[in-house]
Amino acid sequence: MNAEPWTDDACSLVDAFRRGERSPREEVEATLAAISASDLNAFSFVDTEHALEAADRADVSFPFGGLPVGVKELEPVAGWPETEASLVFRDRVATHTSTVIERLLGSGGAVPVGLTTASEFGGLNVSVTKLNGVTHNPWRHGRTVGGSSAGSSAAVAGGLVSLATGGDGGGSIRIPAGYTGLLGMKGTYGRIPRGPNTYFRPGTVVLGCLARSVRDAARYFDVCAGYDGRDPWSLPARPGWESRLGTNELAGRRVAVVPALAGGILEPGIEEHLRDSAAKLIAATGMVEVDLEIDVPNLAAHWMMGNMATLLADLGVRWPACANDMTDEMAIGLVLSQSMYNLTTAAVAEKQRIRANEAMARAFDEVDFVIAASNPGIAFPAEATTSIPAAGIIEWAKTNPIARQGFRGVMSGVRLAGGAFPKLPSAILDIASERFPDLVHMGALTIISNIYGNPAVSIPGGLLDGLPVGMQVLTRHHADELLFDVALATEREMPWPKVASPRAPAETSSSG
Length: 512
Description:
This protein is an alpha+beta fold. Helices cover 38% and strands 12% of the residues.
């Protein structure tokens, strides 16, 4: 029996199965043992019996034949818990399996091990919930893995499984990939279907995976991408993602380096580190760097409130009685959205969306790629419930029951006043965005590609103080294969560790 799970990429493990060097059952047994011994809190549910049975009947000729995989707990798997990482649904069991998981386990041949932890309802870029507690970064225990695909990134970077599913509605694949040194690809909107029972609003969610290598992510696209009638916004299949890797000429392509994209505020050292990594990539590929200003509005606050419509539909008659079962951030965000979001606010958001779309379209008329930071800094403390350390409106509202009740009273007043003065909520939101930065800087670097719908990838860009820094690369719609090739060039020029290499801060440098 193999004592430890595989620490190379997923494709090489499937190759080892086919050569008879390892068996799916032995790998699953090693995976289960490692999960049991881990202090990362990467899995919220493990199905030992089903995993072993699936391993015994695995067909290793399939693309991911016999590969143990983690499933983000926001994806339903029939017979497994369907909690959405919330106490509200702690007793709910899924009655169906999502299209993407059916493909991964069916035509992909993967072995499902269990559910990986996520942020509650996928609403925040942190790894703390009331249901599951805190998920830790395998590079340094006590640091975050981001969110919402928290457990998936911790499990893959932490050496528990070599592939896990993810979803990205505002950066939820790219953010944790950046914090954990993984490849996190968000394809063009609709590339991988989200059915069945697909909510559309706010029209930003894209499915994918957390991967150790470019070819792993490309193979995942081969298996899981393609149209599904239960998701009418899904795109037709484009076979050959893996086989076409490296076939696009990058020399001469134009690239703009915009570290603080969309008004994101970077922590000290991040911009310099990113520019150094970008310069190495540009030199290695023969791309041409050009100066370009991209003036896009920060849509994070409007995106957050519009997104709450889906949550409200999900909660149904449980809301607001279930508020105490929810994380404070999600409950307060829902109260805020109910009070502030009206037709006028929606109209402002739509105008800003058009402005953002036009700005991004102009940028990609000028360049093939934009390089930006994936995250404002390196991984922050794991227990933090927002990615902005400064106190803001959410922090104030949850300080104590009196403040929380006062906040709800204020928001009720805003809602009533908004009926008579419909422009009031939007004006208040503009002021609040300036006064309370936690409203607009959580995911500011990544949300723009969800709003616009273009593909974007977080590529490992070396270490700063011993923790990973993600280099985010964006391109125009439907040019996903170009991003795979940029990532492949980075992988060859600046190879990254397949799993985390924890070390003390004093022993590290800022180089990759």
